[in-house]
Write a structure and sequence with these properties.
The structure is a single chain. It contains 14 helices and 11 strands. It is of the alpha+beta class. The protein folds into 2 domains: about 150 residues, no CATH class; about 180 residues, no CATH class. It has a 4-stranded antiparallel sheet with strand order 1-2-7-4, sandwiched between helices. β8 and β9 form a beta hairpin. α12 runs parallel beside α14 and α13 packs antiparallel against α14. The relative contact order is 0.16. The protein binds cobalamin (B12) and iron/sulfur cluster (2 copies). Cobalamin binds next to α2, α4, β7, β9 and α6. The site of one iron/sulfur cluster has 12 residues, from α6 and α8.
Length: about 375
């Protein structure tokens, strides 16, 4: 690689070697409309227009200075390379309503969001981008390249939109031409002045008047013009929230059979119809899989048990207590009285959140 110039072709080859499409490039600093849009987002975020971060997401506010400023993350930034990896897969449970009422005689299952069924994308996309960043650094002396996937202060859905990789839908997620919103995002911030790759898709947007995602959200977490109230989102409750949820939480019913994450707003989106299943083996492989029997989740004993079943998958984030708590919520919604004995045992669990949710699930089942 020539240390003076990294051509579009070289960049595309480096990404292709990791089975990634050529990245979209956000040249920095921005100007014109792109800069105007950046400022509006920055002000909206700083002014608290986004969701008020609930417990466990408070760190988001600490990024107020850098969320829309890659140059505050990497000094001397001249561009950001934005990349994505499609994870769409269709499993049997995706054809069933997520309300959580099992048909008579069947076991009750807990549903897992698509992105979390296989290998953790922080590792899968993150490792690919880190390898690319190392190669770039080796080839372009004096320049710096830092790879991020999810973790990092920048708003990656904005990066996707501003770079032309896709656009931000009203469900607040980035929609890309081929995988729709079924793609995880990552980026490399660099001091190298990459220029935008021509031929990127022309800007698309949500059809006028479409509110399918907003209407489909089971807990009313979405609103116009494209706001997410994280404290109402099932994804937040099931992944990021620690301990028990407020008593009488109105959102628990809406959770249905979901035990890790939620895909309802994405399933409703017309851009997500007829998306091809991912070819990424790490996402196709079942680690957690699409669904687990609630009896299995309710019986999880400790960290080792969780490691044995879910090592390498996003479910590790929630840990044993969170997964059992979520399974209790799904059990309560299931209408499946055969779960009462196991829930009864959990009423003396070491974890207060699990005890609380087991009791609530029993109350719910006994009144059904
Ligand atoms: C924290 C987080 C969450 C939180 C909170 C999300 C949130 N919006 O704050 C929770 C746990 C709820 C969550 C859920 C999910 N997440 Co998430 N999440 C993130 C993370 C780590 C940070 C997002 C962030 O910084 N939010 C704070 C700011 C930007 O958002 P905000 O508070 O809503 O404020 C903005 C808007 O509200 C808007 N706004 C509101 N009103 C107005 C008015 C006007 C006039 C204007 C201009 C703007 C405006 O402006 C604000 C500033 O931009 C990103 C990764 C990253 N680094 O970006 C992944 C990320 C967004 N998540 C991702 C995924 C996959 C999900 C889930 C689908 C997982 C699942 N299946 O359960 C769900 C989807 C929920 C949804 N509909 O968005 C992917 C999305 C990929 C994509 N294609 O876009 C990302 C990019 C991770 C990744 N690397 O792939 N997530
Ligand atoms: S992930 Fe689920 S709960 Fe969260 S906004 Fe989308 S549909 Fe609503
Ligand atoms: S469902 Fe409609 S409004 Fe929501 S993101 Fe998709 S196209 Fe946009």
């Amino acid at each position: 690689m020539n240390t003076m110039s990294i051509s579009d072709g070289i960049l595309a080859d480096l990404f292709a070697a990791e089975n990634l499409d050529p990245p979209a490039v956000l040249p920095w600093p921005l100007n014109g409309r792109a800069e105007e849009d950046r400022r509006i987002r920055e002000q909206a975020f700083a002014g608290g227009l986004g969701s008020r971060p609930p417990p466990g997401l408070d760190w988001i506010r600490s990024h107020v200075e850098s969320k829309y400023r890659p140059d505050r993350v990497v000094d001397g930034c001249r561009s950001v390379l934005v990349s994505a990896l499609g994870y769409y897969r269709y499993d049997e449970i995706d054809g069933l309503p997520a309300g959580g009422i099992p048909s008579r005689g069947s076991s009750s299952f807990g549903r897992i969001a698509r992105y979390a069924r296989g290998r953790d994308y922080h590792k899968e996309l993150g490792n690919r981008l880190r390898r690319i960043a190392r190669k770039l650094e080796a080839g372009a002396a004096g320049h710096r390249f830092r790879a991020f996937t999810d973790i990092g202060p920048l708003d990656e859905t904005w990066l996707a939109e501003a770079s032309g990789l896709g656009f931000k839908g009203r469900h607040t997620l980035a929609i890309l031409p081929s995988p729709g919103s079924w793609a995880v995002l990552g980026h490399i911030i660099s001091t190298y002045p990459f220029t935008a790759i021509p031929g990127r898709p022309s800007p698309m947007s949500c059809p006028e008047g479409c509110t399918r995602c907003i209407d489909a959200c089971p807990t009313g977490a979405l609103s116009l013009p494209g706001r997410l109230e994280a404290s109402r989102c099932i994804s937040y409750h099931s992944i990021e929230h620690k301990g028990s949820l407020e008593k009488g939480n109105l959102f628990m019913r809406g959770t249905g059979d979901r035990v890790f994450g939620c895909d309802a707003c994405q399933e409703a989106c017309p851009f997500n119809v007829r998306v091809a299943e991912t070819e990424v083996e790490a996402f196709r492989r079942d680690i957690a899989g699409a669904a687990r029997e609630l009896t299995e989740l309710l019986s999880l004993e400790g960290r080792d048990d969780v490691l044995d079943r879910f090592a390498g998958s996003p479910l590790m984030r929630t840990g044993r207590n969170g997964l059992v708590r979520n399974a209790c919520t799904a059990a309560g919604n299931s209408g499946d009285a055969s779960l009462l004995p196991i829930l009864s045992k959990l009423q003396t669990d070491v974890d207060a959140g699990v005890r609380e949710h087991a009791s609530r699930a029993m109350e719910q089942l006994e009144v059904l």
